[in-house]
Specification:
39% of the residues lie in helices and 26% in strands. It is α+β, with helices and mostly antiparallel strands. Strand 4 and strand 5 form a beta hairpin. It is globular. The N and C termini lie far apart (57 Å).
């Protein structure tokens, strides 16, 4: 069964497949489904189970992850095509909780990979599982690095350290 071109294009733009060969990307792509969301529609919310065990890869449009911090809504990450959401519950399983709300800022399409479907590769294609999980770690590390940089810049601005502001 051929894999949808949107799935292949999105996977090729994602950190998930940086170490995979074309045939492996094709195999992985067959496990994904495409879902469309309208502007303002929530993909994930705390307490909801709908996509709890799915990794979400943005294919088109804009999606925003937000959380309520100190009674105010704060943007955690604005996703670009190829970016990931739902990482902690996908990797963490049932012990993980969703703490952010992911909402479509525009009409969008996402790729969904259910953890149970992904786990079917463990016995037959373990290298794909290994390299995809490395890609998830790289993506998460990139988010943390960016947030640390933003925190340092803000701290320099507030406390006027390092003579930059």
């Amino acid at each position: 069964m051929p894999t949808d071109s949107l799935i292949l294009q999105t996977l090729n733009n994602s950190t998930l497949t940086e170490e995979l060969r074309d045939a492996e990307i094709e195999t992985l792509g067959q496990l994904f489904e495409i879902k469309s969301f309208k502007k303002g529609e929530a993909l994930l919310r705390p307490g909801e189970e709908q996509l709890k065990n799915s990794l979400i890869v943005l294919a088109s449009g804009e999606v925003e992850a937000t959380a309520t911090l100190g009674g105010e809504q704060a943007t955690l990450h604005l996703l670009q095509p190829g970016d990931l959401a739902g990482i902690i519950t996908f990797a963490g399983g049932n012990v993980s909780q969703i703490s952010a709300t992911v909402v479509a800022r525009t009409d969008c399409k996402v790729l969904l990979l259910e953890r149970s479907r992904f786990e079917t590769l463990l016995n037959t294609q373990p290298a794909i599982v290994y390299y995809v999980m490395r890609g998830i770690v790289r993506h998460t590390h990139g988010i943390v690095r960016r947030m640390n940089t933003e925190t340092a810049v803000m701290s320099n601005y507030i406390y006027k350290t390092q003579g930059r502001f």
